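1st attempt posting a full record on here, be nice pls
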Amino acid sequence: MTLTPSPRSVRGRLRGHHIGAYGLLALAALLFLVFSLALPATFPTQDNISSILSNQSIPAILALGATLPIATGRFDLSIGYGLGLAHVMVMQLVVDEGWPWPLACLVVVCAAAVVGALNGVIVEFGQIDSFIATLGTGSMMYAVTGWITEGGRIVPGPDGLPASFTGLYDSRLLGLPVPAFYVLAVAAVLWLVLERLPLGRYMYVIGSNPRAAGIIGIPTRTYSIYAFAGSSLVVGFAGVLLAAQQQTGNPSVGLDYLLPAFVGALLGSTTIRPGRANAAGTVVAVAVLAIGLAGIGQLGAEFWATPLFNGGTLLIAVGLAGYSARRRLRTGERQPPPEHVQNTS
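the predicted structure (as tokens):
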């Protein structure tokens, strides 16, 4: 007897898949509509949209960077510290050392990738939990940041920073802030890597079942190190943008971006491709967070509403990510084999 799923069960699974895959995208549209109706004079304006895109570009890029280690089942808690160190190093090289800003940015981004690779080596070869290892290395990065700045800020001279450097953040393209296009470019590259290249498929296999990945011959340690290095490369780029935005070297500014980055990456794993970290889902998640924060801010929320919103959303994101993974596993267990199964009884 051939075992085939009933039409009702197939429709139910398809409906559940579409809700899981695109529900967060619908929520973003709904939030924008609600706040537009509540604040018609200020929220649905071009200035407000441009402000949201500009202000959330660095958190979005950082969240995309956090996506890579999460795809392999690891977490990099050093990204906030790395962001602070990268932007301080750019300011140090440009302001105090007199380097041309393109060279300074290139060196900092490459150095960030090397630091990320070292994180991966510590986690994989030191057999230290990624939470603990990256928290330790992050604290060391914070110490280096304090040593470079001597606890103060790096402030440009009377002439300021080169306009071509600050234009990395301040410029506009097609009427929109240029950083919004950086986010799209980084998301496109990560989508290509994770969804279309063997590198990304290997990372997903490692994240879902590292033991099976090793059995089929995937060098799990190598690809995990790649994930950490790629993540830090993105963080270094975000640090360059932060330096162009802040135009000063602030040793403590990076930590403020850590929680929003993980909220975006984890919440993103519940949409588009539910159950696994993905670039498109991260962009959607950051959009939901950006719209929500902008809306409650314009409604007059107190200063503590932002960390409350981020923390609560993180708990929801982790819960939804776990539920989505369990649901995906249960659905896979209930699926019949792809070939017709004959009842031999």
